[in-house]
């Protein structure tokens, strides 16, 4: 029996999972670390915290399992995307990593757009310049901390720093590199044009691999430190969403997944590159060699329901405590009793602005149609429906781009709700499924490692062998017809309010 390791370097902690080659988890460990906010809008982490969590995680899963080191054939790395790690000539970390959710780079976003051109940056990197991407962070350090920039010899992403610590190799892979805004997405290589226009030395960047390719093996020191074999390979791995796609079997045309976490994501695989010239969705290289994915993001998906719970559902929280169940279970049961359309009450889930399809930081949440007949349960149903309509918006943009979806997986906390899954199935007019294995990104990169180690011939073969559906929600035709009526009204609301949102932001 062969085994594989999946390591997911997340924002709140690093999760390490040891799997059998058939995807069965053997042991798991998670180690958390802090987030630093030195100023409003800043978000930083210490890369050494990620490394310590990785080492402790490997030691923990090995001690739990008693699997011989030589039977562990490979390691796959996943992690938070877009973070900036800068190393000096001695490979020391120069400053804390500026991570994905940091918002300090608005001036640098304007600089990128001006120097490269609004249209050209989308043509090359498949996305408009935004504050989250790594290129803007590099320019921020260059503009604001020139002494740190001058010391920089290597620029890495979070998971790729862990790769360097494991193998001594400076390497990245196409899915994570896509989120730096320095990669030519159609050509799957660094863009000399963008780098030249931004004045970034290409030699600072790591070598780019495909996700299942071997990027190195463990150093002797790391093997001794962790208990793994020095011959253990480390493959390219993938950014968190691309890894989740492999972990849910979304590796062929027609397949997609919806995640309802704090934000909402609709992620679709495509063998042929498709770029939205309006920049409403992200197009990145995916973890399947020579394929891409398109991803729409709604900012406040599960966050909308959490906001409702924390501010309006105190009774439900007390009831759930007394019953020993999750408050969301009680809320689901209440929303189930309300008809489709929430008795003519609609909710716009734009609590913190929106990305897909509006790209509007000024947009805000709205209850539309509220009257004296409405009860808290109507508002609850409207929130869940509003989030579902915003996810339908993502699918509609993809359809405009020629990407059709006929097989949808549901993940994240919201994906555990049968009611929410049924809403999505009815709105998407296709089956919505969950998977038996819930390990997501860690499983995805472990399967990439299995491909690199020769256990499977391709990513698609690995997923066919390992990923099995669990719960399946079929669309209900009469429900779909009712939701379509309400969705058409929903799509009229933001255009009618856009100017008012902008004016509100200036009061």
Question: Could you explain how this protein is built, in words?
Answer:
By secondary structure, this protein is of the alpha/beta class. Among the domains are: 3-242, Nucleotidyltransferase, domain 5; 302-395 and 489-497, Nucleotidyltransferase, domain 5. The chain has 18 helices and 24 strands. Strands 1, 2, 3, 5, 13, 14 and 15 form a 7-stranded mixed sheet that branches. Helix 2 crosses helix 4 (134-144), helix 11 (302-312) packs antiparallel against helix 14 (376-400) and helix 12 (314-323) packs across helix 13. The mean pLDDT is 96.
Outline the secondary-structure elements.
Elements: E1 3-9, E2 13-20, E3 25-32, E4 44-45, H1 47-65, E5 72-79, E6 85-87, E7 97-98, H2 106-116, H3 118-125, H4 134-144, H5 146-151, E8 154-156, H6 158-167, E9 171-173, H7 174-177, E10 183-184, E11 189-190, H8 192-198, E12 207-209, E13 214-217, H9 220-226, E14 233-235, E15 238-239, H10 240-247, E16 255-260, E17 264-270, E18 282-285, E19 292-298, H11 302-312, H12 314-323, H13 327-336, E20 346-348, E21 366-368, H14 376-400, E22 407-411, H15 418-428, E23 432-435, H16 441-452, H17 459-466, E24 469-473, H18 477-505
Parallel strand pairs: 1-5, 5-14, 5-15, 9-12, 16-22, 22-23
Antiparallel strand pairs: 1-2, 2-3, 4-7, 6-8, 10-11, 13-14, 16-17, 17-19, 18-19, 20-21, 23-24
Helix pairs in contact: 1-6, 2-3, 2-4, 2-8, 10-16, 11-12, 11-14, 12-13, 13-14, 14-15, 15-18
């Amino acid at each position: 029996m062969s085994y594989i390791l999946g390591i997911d370097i997340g924002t709140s902690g690093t999760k390490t999972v040891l799997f059998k080659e058939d995807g069965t988890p053997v042991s798991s460990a998670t180690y958390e670390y802090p987030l630093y906010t030195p100023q409003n809008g800043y978000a930083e982490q210490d890369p050494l915290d990620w490394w310590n969590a990785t080492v402790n995680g490997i030691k923990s899963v090995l001690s739990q399992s008693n699997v011989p080191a030589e039977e562990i054939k490979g390691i796959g790395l996943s992690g938070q995307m877009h973070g900036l790690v800068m190393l000096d000539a001695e490979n020391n970390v120069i400053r804390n990593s500026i991570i994905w959710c940091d918002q300090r780079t608005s001036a640098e976003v304007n600089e990128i757009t001006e120097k490269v051109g609004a249209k050209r940056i989308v043509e090359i990197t498949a996305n408009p310049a935004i504050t989250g991407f790594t290129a803007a962070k590099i320019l921020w350090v260059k503009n604001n901390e020139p002494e740190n920039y001058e010391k920089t010899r290597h620029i890495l992403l979070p998971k790729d720093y862990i790769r360097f610590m494991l193998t001594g190799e400076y390497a990245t892979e196409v899915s994570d590199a896509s989120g730096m805004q320095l990669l030519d997405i159609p050509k799957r290589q660094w863009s000399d044009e963008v780098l030249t226009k931004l004045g970034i030395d290409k030699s600072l960047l790591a070598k780019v691999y495909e996700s299942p390719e071997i990027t190195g093996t463990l150093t002797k020191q790391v093997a001794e430190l962790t208990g793994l074999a020095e011959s253990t390979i480390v493959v390219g791995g993938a950014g968190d969403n691309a890894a989740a796609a492999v972990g849910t079997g979304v590796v062929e045309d027609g397949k997609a997944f919806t995640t309802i976490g704090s934000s909402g994501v609709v992620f679709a695989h495509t063998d042929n590159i498709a770029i939205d010239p309006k920049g409403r969705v992200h197009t990145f290289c995916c973890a399947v060699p020579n394929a891409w994915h398109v991803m729409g993001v709604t900012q406040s998906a599960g966050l909308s329901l959490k906001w409702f719970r924390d501010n309006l559902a105190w009774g439900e929280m007390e009831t759930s405590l007394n019953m020993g169940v999750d408050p969301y279970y009680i809320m689901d049961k209440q929303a189930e009793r309300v008809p489709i359309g929430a008795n003519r009450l609609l909710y716009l889930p734009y609590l913190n602005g929106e990305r897909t399809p509006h790209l509007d930081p000024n947009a805000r949440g709205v209850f539309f149609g509220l009257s004296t007949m409405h009860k808290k349960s109507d508002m609850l149903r409207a929130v869940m429906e509003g989030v579902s309509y915003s996810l339908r918006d993502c699918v509609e943009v993809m359809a405009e781009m020629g990407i059709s979806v006929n097989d949808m997986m549901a993940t994240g906390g919201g994906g555990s709700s049968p009611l929410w899954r049924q809403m999505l199935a009815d709105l998407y007019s296709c089956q919505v499924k969950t998977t038996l294995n819930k390990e997501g990104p860690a499983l995805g990169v472990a399967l990439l490692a299995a491909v690199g180690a020769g256990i499977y011939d391709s990513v698609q073969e690995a997923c066919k062998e390992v990923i099995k559906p669990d719960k399946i929600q079929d669309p209900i035709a009469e429900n779909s017809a009712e939701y379509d009526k309400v969705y058409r009204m929903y799509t009229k609301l933001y255009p009618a309010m856009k100017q008012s949102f902008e004016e509100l932001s200036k009061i």
